[in-house]
Structure formats: C-alpha cells, structure tokens
Amino acid sequence: MNKALNIDKKIFYKYFSKKIGSIIILSCIIMLGTLVNSITPYLFGNIIDAIVKGQIDQILKLIKIMFLLEVICAGLSAIENYYGNKITLKITYNIKRDIINKILFINMDNLNKYSKGELINRVEQDSNEIASTHISFLTGILQTFIKGIISILFAFRISMLLTIISIIYLPLSYLGGMIYKNKLQRFKLSLKEFHDTYLSFINEILQNIEGIKSYCLENKIALRINDLYKRNLSLSNKYFSVQCGMNGMQNILSTILDCVMLLVAAMLINNKKMTVGSFVSFNQYIRSLLQVFSQVMGYVMGFISCQVNIDRISRLLNEPIENMNESKTVRLSHIKNIRINSVFFKYDQKVILENLNLEIKENGLYSIVGLNGAGKSTLFKIILKLYTIQSGKIYINDQEIDSYSISQLRNEISYIAKDPFLFNDTIKFNLTLGKELDEQYLIEVTRRVGLLEFISELNNGLNTYIGENGIILSSGTKQKISIARALIKNTSMWMCDEIT
After folding, report:
1. Do residues 114 and 199 lie in contact, with contact meaning Cβ atoms separated by under 8 Å?
2. Predicted pLDDT of residue 338
3. Exposure of 289 by Cβ count < 10 A (0-12 exposed, 13-18 middle, 19+ buried)?
4. What is the DSSP letter of 18?
5. DSSP-derived secondary structure letter, 321
6. Residue 1: closest CA among 141, 168, 152
7. Strands (E), 269-408
8. Residues 59, 50: contact at Cβ < 8 Å?
9. What three-state secondary structure class fits 391?
C-alpha cells in the first residue's frame, strides 16, 4: 500500500507544493463539513427512538437541529466543490503549459518519436488525471482520517461487539482489491496507447478530408474507424471486467458483513442491550467507516492507475531540449558560403543521406535536384539544425555549424516549406508572426509578392481571419504568405522547398 500511495516527488514539488496553502484551506472546509455531517447519524438514531416512544416535542426539536446541520453541510459542500475545482483547474493548466512548452523546445529527432495523438493525449488527458488524482488525495486524506476516527468512536460507544465485527471486514476488502491492481494498471496502459493511435488517426482524417473525398475513400475510412471503435470496445470491456470483478468481490464481502451484523444486532435488541434507534445510528456510522475505507482504496487504485499518466508525462518532460541561445564566441551576421563534408544521416534506421558533399562558395540562386525521398528537404532541415547528423561536418562561413547558436543560425535563414504553416489568426499576424511593423511597409511587401489585390478585396483587409490552416486561402495564396514572411525576415539566405 505504501508503494501504491507513493506520490511522485518531482510532480508534487513542481505543481502542488506552490498550492499547498490553498489545499490546506480546502482541507479545512472539507474537515468542517465532515465534523458537522458526523453528528447527523447520532441525531437520526435518537429521532427513531423518540418516534418509538411517542415523544413528539423531542422529535420536533431533533428534526430542527438536524435540518440546520444539513443546510450547513450543503453550503460547505458547495464551497468545497467550487474551491476544489478552481485549484484543480489551475494545476492542470500549469501541467498543460509545461507540456506544450516542452514540446515546442524538444529537438525534432526526439519529438518525432511521438505521434500527434500521443502528444494531444498527454496534454489533455494525462494532465487532467494527474491533477485530479493528487488533489483528491491531498484534500481527502485528512477528511477520511477524521471521518474514520469519529465513526469508530461513535460506533464503539454504541456497540463494541458490532464494531469489532466490522473492523475484521476491512483488511479482507483491501486484499480483495489488491488482487486486481496489476490487471487494472495493465489495461489502463493499453487503453492509453490505443487512444494515442485513435487521436492520431482522427487528426489525419481532419487534415486530409479533401483528399479523402476526392478519392472517394469515405467508406474505407468509415470501416477503419469502425474497427478502431471495436478495438476500443474490446479493451474497455477488459478494463471494466477487472473493475467489475474487484467491485463484485467487495460487494460479496459487504453482503456477508451485513448479514452477520443484522443477526448480531437482532440478538442485542432482543436482549434489550441495544435500541432500534441505536442500531440505525450504528449502521450509519459503520457505513461511513466503510466509505472511508473505500475512499482509501480509491486513492490506492487511483495512484496505481495514475502512475501510467505520470510515467508518460515524465518521459516527455525528461526529453532533451534545444539550447536555443547557447553562448557562442562566433557571431553569425551574414551567410557567405556553405560547405558540407561527408554528411551521413539516417532516420529511424533508414539511411537518408550518405557521404553527402556540397559546396556553395558565393551568393546566388542554386537548385538541388533529386528523386522523391533523396533527402532534399532533409538537407534543409539539417542546415537549420532541426535534425542532428550522425557523422560528417557542415561549415558556414568556414566555421563549423556548431560554432553558432541555434537562434543565430535560424534567424539568418528564411525557410519556405512546401506546406506553409499558418495560424488561425489574421493575415497580418501570419505575415508578421507577432512583430510590430508599419502597415505601409506590409502593404508594399504584399504588393511585391502579388497579395495586395487579393487583400484589398477582403472586407477587413489585413485583419481578415484566415481560419484553421488558412481554410479561406488558395494554396498559391498560402505560398505567397510564406514568401512575404521571408521578405519581412530579411535574411541573407533563403531555403525554398519546391517553391515552384
């Protein structure tokens, strides 16, 4: 159990320790609600005994007190839900922010190990589960402890024999849950990996919807989706069967306990050693105690399940990042020449470039020609240091490429990809990428690349939103935006991938 409830220290200190004050306040609210709520079973039992005795005045008095306590509990519960959700949302945001920031700075060699579905799943699902699991534990453990102590004290006060019988049940319930823990974790991981694949496929469909329609692939894609849903159903059924098995065992043990307690209680009531009202109160306190134990079991199983999320997040957060602004003694202000000597590069065991030699001695317009897959685009990405070569040397201005920081290098090169990247923002933002530039200068740039007439016909001109992936733009207009960006960037070197 200690191992199951072992909180990941790095995760805790990074995301939860800063919120410990808020968590303590939330715990106090929960604790106050627990204390108030613990009195109502005792009052309820007294009301039952007063009903049996026909004490109307006492009944009304106890009902008023119980009503007041229930109203207080309802108010505290509402505050608890609001405050708890607020803390969880903030921590979840911090985890998501760090994952996104990490993704932005991981070098491409390592980032390509993950599918888009994997990355989306880690950002959206894993972060939510980590935050909610830890907050539930940190705020609930004190509540369960106090609730458990109060329930035991009241239960012992009412009947020591019945309390001992109930306590014997607790370790049996725990052992029943532990039998299923390994299967539960294994199927949770399988479901996570499936959802990675599923999200990647959905992303592919949405990105390629025009191509799917133009080749009449709708039925084939629908069949693949159906197969994925069947696989998801199969994995989910296995996961649910483990949960059902665990719950079934606990329910059987609970039923046995109920039967034994009813039998013993009947004997005690028959021998005048317990009233009906006292048994009703006792039953509620024992239910509360069993609920406490169930919550502890929930924390155990939750952390077992959450370990899958933590491992996935930790693996991503531990990936090496690019040192964009690493201090270098050599400055790069203008690219004059490039020399590539015996470069070897492979990707995922496939050799892309082998013994590549190339020299560009002076400024000019050069074309690199080759078959599809020969490595033309890869060469550009290597010069940009998006990928790391396995052997060979690259020189810029007669200095090794590693003599320059990554930011220096990329700020001196304009890369125009064959598939322009666009944001769901205005034309102006997609041209400037957030830089503050004079609008007259932007108009001149758009005129030079042949965009001005198109922009002039739009109601909002440069402030027109282009939609996701530039949905309102033609492919030629998208390419012109990329060229305009290069003009605005004003670098000494352009690398154009299939610009024709």
Report:
1. no
2. 92
3. buried
4. G
5. B
6. 141
7. 338-347, 350-360, 391-396, 399-400
8. yes
9. strand
